[in-house]
Amino acid sequence: MKIVEHHLVQLAAVIETGGVTEAAAMLGMTQSAVSRTISVLEKRIGEPLFVSGRRPMQPTPLGEQLGLQGRSILASSRKAAEIVRSFKSGSAGRVRIGGVPFFMDAIVSLMIASFQRDEPGIMIDQSYGNYSDLVGALDSGQIDLAITPTGSVDMRVDHLFEPILPARNVLACGAGHPLVRKRNLATEDMVNYPWVAPLPGSPLVLDLHNILLTLGLEEVSVRYAGGSLLSVVNYLAGTDALTILPLSVAYSFRREDKISIIPLDIPQPERVLGILTRKKPYSNPASRKFIGHLRRESAELRRVTEKYDRSISWAPGPFMAEHRKPSE
Prior knowledge:
Number of helices: 12
Largest sheet: 5 strands, mixed
Order of helices and strands: HHHHEHEHEEEHHEHEHEHEEH
CATH architecture of the largest domain: 3-Layer(aba) Sandwich
CATH topology of the largest domain: D-Maltodextrin-Binding Protein, domain 2
Shape: rod-shaped
Strand order of the largest sheet: 2-1-3-10-4
Number of strands: 10
Structural class: alpha/beta
């Protein structure tokens, strides 16, 4: 015997409301349609589903058991409708985001936390990668958006790129490093200390090469490489090593008394950090809502880091002043 699921839903509604008229109103149906369903169901089963003459309507033991199944179906239907509503409103769902490691750990993780305080129903799935890895993940549908630095030559017609922060690098070291207090920095100062190498594949690798080229140096002594952001910060705090970091990343550690910025003007890259998406993504309102949050948080981050940048007395040292961007 086959029992139609929506017949059980109507049965559950009658039991829940105590009457056919009330059940019809709850389900958005006519009273006659619900009454006909109960009659058809009783004939198909060959047993009464309600005790005759009782008001409000009282189910028989069999009617009560079948009503429980209908209630489960009704609850699932309501849950499905709520899922659709939440998805369309962007208050539930999943956002898959990839990004460059240091910026994700220092900056974006905090933005995710503040976003989820207001949107606890949205799951954030984070991954790491450099530009080529992120483009591949985006094209294959593994992520919804990427946070990555890029230059204009890298742009593709099937992608959208929204700049959120200009690239700005600084020389970083442990708090209390001798170079932080030295007034007149010379080229020799850069080679007298060991260095932490940027992560392989990171744009910071090219930036470091450009700095060495400007200094007229072929290489520096690299003593540590391949570490995560936390391990690099801890290493700098415990040694006299130097490294190159994005200003925004160094700024995020300003209150922890672990690292300092060497106030030396260095060549700056011709790229910006931004949000990379496909031009025709799958519909994901949660992702759009999260991107809006990133815009607002990034605008504030840009404001405070530029103010922080202006508060530092940058020494030209061995670098040419024209290497700095006019806006800085």
